[in-house]
Amino acid sequence: MTTHESDEPAGLVLGGRYRVDSVIGRGGMSVVYHGTDTVMGRDVALKVFNSDLASADDLERQAGEIRLIASLNHPALVTAYDAVADEVGRLALVLEYVTGHDLRTELAGGIVGETRAALIGADIAAALAYIHDRGIVHRDLKPGNILMPDVSQGETATAAKLADFGIARLVDATHLTSAGSFLGTAGYLSPEQAAGESVGPPGDVYSLGLVLLECVTGTREFGGTALEAAVARLSRDPAVPAGLGDWTGILERMTRRDPASRATAVEAAVALRALVSSSLPEPTVEVEAPTEAFAVPATERATEVFAAPSPDARTAAHPAPAVDAATRVFTTPSRDAATEVFDATSAAPAAAPASARAPGSPPTAEQPAPSPGRPARRAPLIVAWTIVAVVLVAAAALFAGPIVRSLDSGPEPIIYPAVDGELGSHLEQLQRSVAP
After folding, report:
1. Where are the domains of the chain?
2. Residue 146 backbone phi and psi in degrees, to 5
C-alpha cells in the first residue's frame, strides 16, 4: 500500500537543475510535475515516485536500468532525459514534456473511430516492437499511458506516444514486487498477469488489443471490480464484434489467451498500418487543363516577312562592265612595219583610215598627203619610241648597276638592239651618257 505524500513545493530545484513548476497529475505510484530544465531552458515532466517504491538508494542500484531507459529513442516513445533524487531522497525521472492529452480523456467522449484508432495502434505497436527488441516489457499499457500530442499546422508527428515504459524495471526490486504483487491496471491486464505468471512481450500486445477494442466499440471489455476484471479474462476471450471487418481478425489475434499464439508487436504494427492505408480516401489527382491554341486578335498583326525594297537610285547596283579584253602579247614588229592604231574598246586591231580623227576632237581640214621624200607622221613615232627607250635604259641602269658591281668577274658590256634612223642615233647618245 502506497502512502500519500506531500507535493514538491513550486520553485524547488531537483538535482541542482530541474525546477518544479506545477502538478500535472497523480497516480498510485508517483506524482508528475511540469518543470523546467534551467540549463537547457526547456519544459520537462518530472515523475517523482513515492518513497516506498523508489528512493535515492534505488537510484544508485538501478543506475544501469536508468541509463538503458534514457538511451531509448523512438518517435512514439516519451523520451527519458535524466534521473535525480529530491531533498527527501525520492527518485525523480526527468521526461519529455508532451503538450496534448491522453487517450483516456479522448475515450471519455465516446468512440475514437476506426481510422484514428488504427493510426494510434500502429504507432504504439511500433513503439512496443522497439522496446521489446531491447528486452523491456511495459506491463502497464492502458489509455492513461498513451499520450496524444498536439500537432501544429504544417508539422508532422506521430498520432500517439507511449509513456511510463521501463517503470516496471525500476520498481522490480522494491517492496511492492517483493511482496508478490504485480504491476498493472485491472481493466487491461493480460491473462498471464492476472494469473500471476511471468509476463513477456505478448502481454503488452494483449493489453494494446483491449485498448483498441475499446476505441472502436466505445466499451471497456472487462469492467467491474479489479478482481472481477482479472478473473473474467481467465475464463473467456474478449468479445470482438464480427461486423468490424478487417478489425475483427486483427483484434482476435492480439487478444488470444495463449501468449504463444498471439500476434507479435511487429505483426500488429504492420496489420494496423495496412488498415490505415485502406481506410484513407484515394488521393485526388488534379489533371492540368490541356493547352489551347487561340487565334491572334484582329488588333494584333502577325509578323510578316516583307520583300526587300528596290534599291535607291543612288545606291542601285549597275550591271558589271563588259569583260576587259584579254591581255595580248605582241611580237616585236619587224623593221619599218606599219604602225597600227588600236580602238580602245576593240579586242582586235583594225587599220584606221587616213581621215580618222579622235572622237570628240573638232573637225580639221583634211591633211595633204605627205611628200614622197619622207615618211608620214614620223616625228610623233620617234618621240614615243625615244621615251620608251629612255625608260628601259634607266631601269636597266638602276637594276644592273648593283648586280654588276657585286660580280667578281667585272662588268660586262650591255648590248642593245640596233635601231636605224634618227631613233637609233638618240639611243646611241643615251647609251654613251649612262655608260660607266
Report:
1. 8-97, 99-279, 378-434
2. -110, 110
Strand pairing report for 18-26 and 13-14: antiparallel
Is residue 118's pLDDT more than 50?
Answer: yes
Does residue 175 sit in helix, strand or coil? helix
Residue with cell 635604259: 393
- Strands 91-96 and 100-102: what pairing? unpaired
92-106 average pLDDT score: 94
Same topology, domains 8-97 and 99-279? Answer is no
> Cell digits for 359?
572622237
Residue 290: pLDDT band with limits 50, 70, 90: low
For residue 314, give the C-alpha cell.
543612288
Catalytic positions are 140
Fill in the amino acid letter for 224. Answer: G
Give the range among 63-72, 229-238, 243-252, 383-392 with minimum mean pLDDT.
383-392
Distance between CA 414 and CA 409 in Å, rounded? Answer: 15
**Cα Rg of the chain (Å, integer):** 62
> What is the CATH architecture of 99-279?
Orthogonal Bundle (1.10)
Q: Does domain 8-97 have CATH number 3.30.200.20?
A: yes
CA torsion angle 233 237 239 242 (round to 10)? 160
pLDDT band with cut points at 50, 70 and 90 for residue 183:
confident
What DSSP string runs through 90-108? BEEEEEE---EEEHHHHHT
SS3 for 84?
Answer: strand
- Give the residue carrying C-alpha cell 491522453: 102
CA 260 to CA 334: how far, in whole Å? 139
Please say whether the beta carbons of 84 and 76 come within 8 A. Answer: no
Cα four-point dihedral sign 223, 225, 230, 234: negative
